[in-house]
Amino acid sequence: MSSGDTEGKPRSRRRRPLAAEEKALWEHVTRSIDRLRPAPKLAAPVVPPAPEPAEAPPSPNPRKPPVMSLPARAEKPPVKPPLTPLAPLEPKMRRRLTRGAEVDARLDLHGLTQAAAHGRLIAFLRGAQGSGHSLVLVITGKGDASAGFHHEGGRGVLRRLVPQWLAAPELRAVVVGFETAGRGHGGEGALYVRVRRHREGGR
Question: Does residue 169 lie in a domain region?
Fold first, then answer.
């Protein structure tokens, strides 16, 4: 390259590095100068909101187990006390009767229907109890054990039914016991009946 070519072109200037004193002086000058435009503020980083927890789907209402109703306890009917067993005649009283002792009162049911005989028997025994009698005689008649049992006025019906009436619960408060009379008082056609006294109570 010739010298003539270099003379027409401007020479490029290279910046030399600042000395320490020059650098310090430059910093001092720049501090005292206010900037025309404030330095842009760095925007705070946008933090995306935390995702809300997904709501759990509503659980179906748990079914309550059906209430099992216990069957009502059937109340037991009151237990009735057992009936006092009928008592036979005392041996001493039996001996007195065989020797001819008399009874306190007597009832003859001959010729009565079952309904009439039953009503008459109950009234007689309660009257005897009210009078304080202890032993009475009920005459049923011997009848015929093989005939007439199924007929209203048949012979032998009262002989069979009167013991059942005397043993019934409705007369247990009146009757202590009964048994076949001795020969002197009618034998198998009559009954000795022991009457309960009022003070003895009875069931």
Answer: yes
